[in-house]
Amino acid sequence: MFFPGSFIHTLLFQLPYRDTWFFDLVIILLVVAILYLLIRRRISQSADMQKLLRDKVRDKTKALEEQKERAEHSEKAKEQFLANMSHEIRTPMNAIVQATRLLLENEPKENQLKYLNAIKHSSDNLLVIINDILDLSKIEAGRINFEHIDFNLQEQIQSAYDTLKINSDEKKLELTYDISKDVPLLLNGDPYRLIQIILNLAGNAIKFTEKGSVKISIETAEKQNDFVHLKFSVTDTGIGIANDKLDYIFDMFTQETTSTTRKFGGTGLGLAICKRLIEMQGGSIHVNSKVGHGSTFHFILNYKISNASEKHDQDQRKASNKKIPVEGLRIILAEDNEFNQMVAVDTIEASIKNVIVDVAKTGKQVIEFVLKNNYDLILMDIQMPEMDGHEATKIIRNMSDPNINSIPIIAMTASVIKAEVDKCFESGMNEFVGKPFKVEELMDKISKVMQQNN
After folding, report:
1. What is the 3-state secondary structure (H, E, C) of the chain?
2. Quick one: fold of 149-320?
3. 164, 199 in Cβ contact below 8 A?
4. What phi and psi values does residue 433 have, to the nearest 5 degrees?
5. Domain 330-453 - what CATH class?
6. pLDDT tens, 149-167?
7. Residue scoring higher pLDDT (97 or 265)
8. pLDDT tens, 91-112?
9. End-to-end distance of the chain based on CA atoms, in angstroms?
10. Do 149-320 and 330-453 have matching folds?
11. Among 28, 69, 383, 454, which one is least packed by beta carbons within 10 Å?
């Protein structure tokens, strides 16, 4: 039987030339060949492994990209759905709110007043729910933007107080606020989010307090150079919160008990939104409470202090920029909803002396109107048939006639999501008023744009 192994052994170790240089060379070549083959095999295995890893990474990356695209598409679809729902709800709500306000201003009979107030409060509550849902969606998407503007703290708190006083008076509660003397009044930050938080916390305090009082307090927690940490407190004598509920009172969709929801209503979003708005500004919030005695919500926010010259400049601007009376205007109201047309025209005619209002149902009609007559102002809806408000505004701004392309345009729309608001300004509009609108806000914006135009 032939044994290759024995043959090789004889060839290498038993033949006479095994002690020669040729033998050494053969051994070296064999070792090199074996090492080469081993290295090639390892390289091949490594290449295969690298290819396998590259394929896995490519597949994983592709899967992650697809997952990201699906998530972004889902988020956009959700945002668009909420925007559409907000618009579709706010449009009829505007007619309800404005019609109710007009009736309340016309000295209704006592039995009518009761029903009109019920409509008003129900409408206001529905708007709070809509705004909470929109804010929640923006917070979850990380699309909350904060302003950095000068504002007067006293004026903002007084404005919130005036809003809250209506509900506190109805429940015969004592509503007060106190700002410590060491608190700087002229600050730089986001006054709108601050008032949103105050209204939410104090509104809750009024809702959960059957008798007694609600107090808003503001004091300086810490002062460093041009910055101040302000401590805001909202104290009530309401039902209080049990200790075992305090840990999750700021969770989404949470109220203390189901009986609380049944009795007082609400979505359970308000406190959660407040907490997130405060934390997104670098602040903190906590609560002290005792069942049957009431609660105190404390939160701290940091603001930049505006210096004295800025305050002087602002006071000077306020003195020179007092609201000018607006009267004798010719206005285009671009609005496709029949009921909103009716209440808007009645509101404008009741608020502005000697006004003429021409109603356009489409953006195309707006263009036709400005080519035929001279107008002082356009109140522009956005979502209209044939031509929307954005396109109509761009056409007007691109016209060669300076008497037309400079007409002040105020967006007056139910689309209140920031992206939609930004789009209004990008298309060339001067101001924005969301529906349902407040008459005071609308008149302020009209006065502002007319003064700027003059």
Report:
1. CCCHHHHHHHHHHCCHHHHCHHHHHHHHHHHHHHHHHHHHHHHHHHHHHHHHHHHHHHHHHHHHHHHHHHHHHHHHHHHHHHHHHHHHHHHHHHHHHHHHHHHHHCCCCHHHHHHHHHHHHHHHHHHHHHHHHHHHHHHHCCCCCCCCEEEEHHHHHHHHHHHHHHHHHHCCCEEEEEECCCCCCEEEECHHHHHHHHHHHHHHHHHCCCCCEEEEEEEEEEEECCEEEEEEEEEECCCCCCHHHHHHCCCCCCCCCHHHHHHHCCCCCHHHHHHHHHHHCCCEEEEEEECCCEEEEEEEEEEEECCHHHHHHHHHHHHHCCCCCCECCEEEEECCCHHHHHHHHHHHHHHCECCEEEEECCHHHHHHHHHHCCCCEEEECCCCCCCCHHHHHHHHHCCCCHHHHCCCEEEEECCCCHHHHHHHHHCCCCEEEECCCCHHHHHHHHHHHHHHHC
2. Heat Shock Protein 90 (3.30.565)
3. yes
4. -130, 125
5. alpha beta
6. 888 999 899 988 988 888 8
7. 97
8. 888 888 888 888 988 888 888 8
9. 117
10. no
11. 454
Whether the Cβ atoms of residue 202 and residue 216 lie closer than 8 Å to each other: yes
Q: What is the band of 358 on the pLDDT scale with cuts at 50, 70, 90?
A: very high
Length of the chain: 454
Tell me which of 236-250, 310-324, 367-381, 388-402 is least confident: 310-324
pTM of the model: 0.63
Domain ranges of the chain: 149-320, 330-453
Q: In this structure, which amino acid lies at residue 253? A: F
Is the Cβ–Cβ distance between 355 and 377 less than 8 Å? no
pLDDT of residue 301: 96
In the structure encoding, which two tokens stand for residue 35, read together?
Answer: 């090492």
Angle, helix 338-351 to helix 21-105, in steps of 10 degrees: 60
Q: What are phi and psi of 83, to 5 degrees?
A: -65, -45
